[in-house]
Fold this sequence. Notes:
The chain is of the alpha/beta class and about 425 residues long. It has 2 domains: about 5-185 and about 375-430, Medium-chain alcohol dehydrogenases, catalytic domain (Quinone Oxidoreductase, Chain A, domain 1, Alpha-Beta Complex); about 190-215 and about 230-370, 3-Layer(aba) Sandwich (Rossmann fold). About 30% of the residues lie in helices and about 20% in strands. It is built from 17 helices and 16 strands. Strands 3, 5, 6, 7, 8, 15 and 16 form a 7-stranded mixed β-sheet that branches. The protein has a 6-stranded parallel β-sheet with strand order 11-10-9-12-13-14, sandwiched between helices. Strand 9 (about 235-240), helix 10 and strand 10 (about 265-270) form a beta-alpha-beta unit. Helix 8 packs across helix 10. The longest helix has 17 residues, at about 245-260.
Amino acid sequence: MMQPPNRQLAICFYPPAYDIRVESIPIPSIEHPDDAIIKVKLAGLCGSDLHVYRGTEGVSEPCVCGHEFVGEVVALGSNFHPNASGRPSLYSTLHVGDKVISPFTVSCGECHFCHVGSTCRCVESRLFGTPHTPGGQAQYVRVPKAGGTVYNLQEVSATREIQKLDMKETIPNLADSSLLLLCDILPAGVFAAFQALNHPKILPMVTSLPFPHSSIRTFGDNAHSTIPSLRPEATDLTIAIIGLGPVGVCTCIAVLDFLYTRGSDFKIIAIDPNESRRKKVAAIYSKISCDQPRGFLEVADINESKHVVSKWTNDTNCNAVLEVVGNNSALLLAYDLVRPFGCITSVGAHANSSLPFTGQELFDKNVSLDFGRCPVRAMFPMALDILLRRQDIFGEVGGEVSLIDKIVGFDVAKKTYEEFDKGKCGKVLFDPWR
């Protein structure tokens, strides 16, 4: 569909719910010297988009959808120039024509939260795909605070971490469909795995030292050298992952990758009521577990999972539960499956409702509860590492073990939202120019 000058096609949401329209709207322009305008090559449909689509996010105004996009810089604000100093490096190095990836939230790169790595809580944080920050399911998108938000792929290729991986030449050849996974879902899965496996309550199983000596090095105390190691059977990790949508798949891969790297013994139960999602994870596990001598993963529906965990642990339950759904039924299942003195890590985006358990219940079980949004910018190097090494999963589209099911045009946007909402398809990307 040919557009008039200064107009573009975009997927728009209209409240209160389930109303998706493809419309012709103005192309965004520079509004602030820190802005960049991106020509979108691909945009993702994410599970978090469904909160807006279903009307549970409280969006009361029409908006351009989507918070995952990869594209090319076509315009930059006046604060981008070679002599920019004292600010994030992109203000002096980003150019028109560069390919960039954008995290799903704006981050300035200059506030306290950005400096310490909690970029998702930047003082300038805004979520793409909302009325105040139009999203990436469009042909063009404006990125505020672009020097602290986007990734310049040319600059990423030159980083020391990538040089160490000897994969510098690989990055420019990655498909846009693969790169788009770095906007949200792969960093979110890595974040969930990282939080759980580095939790003080999990470290005894990782270090073979009892709590709190498993964490004592943090405080500069070497008294743990006189503490006997745990018996081997006490160090077995049992982990539940609830929700096997795209972020859940990334979480499974990240957990397996970390545990294989550490040489840990483990049992993972991957849980979802949707049979096609369970089959996808089972196929992926079959592929990446080849020649791995330790640990195993089993997929199950909700009822099966309780019996499996009970049998595995003699009713002790899981050391850690990773909740990747974002609703109270998943949280309740997480509480049921976690053992006393265990941890629940939730990266699912929850609607505005009360928690399904009380503070007393958490207290009586000594359960640690981690909640919140992934700091994508901080997790990017770890996520890129896994993306590069697992191109057999993340590099293809439409295969048995591919994370991405298909790439479609805006002409089927309404139908695609409906299918995704009903669990009839997995990860779908939009090509705005198809």
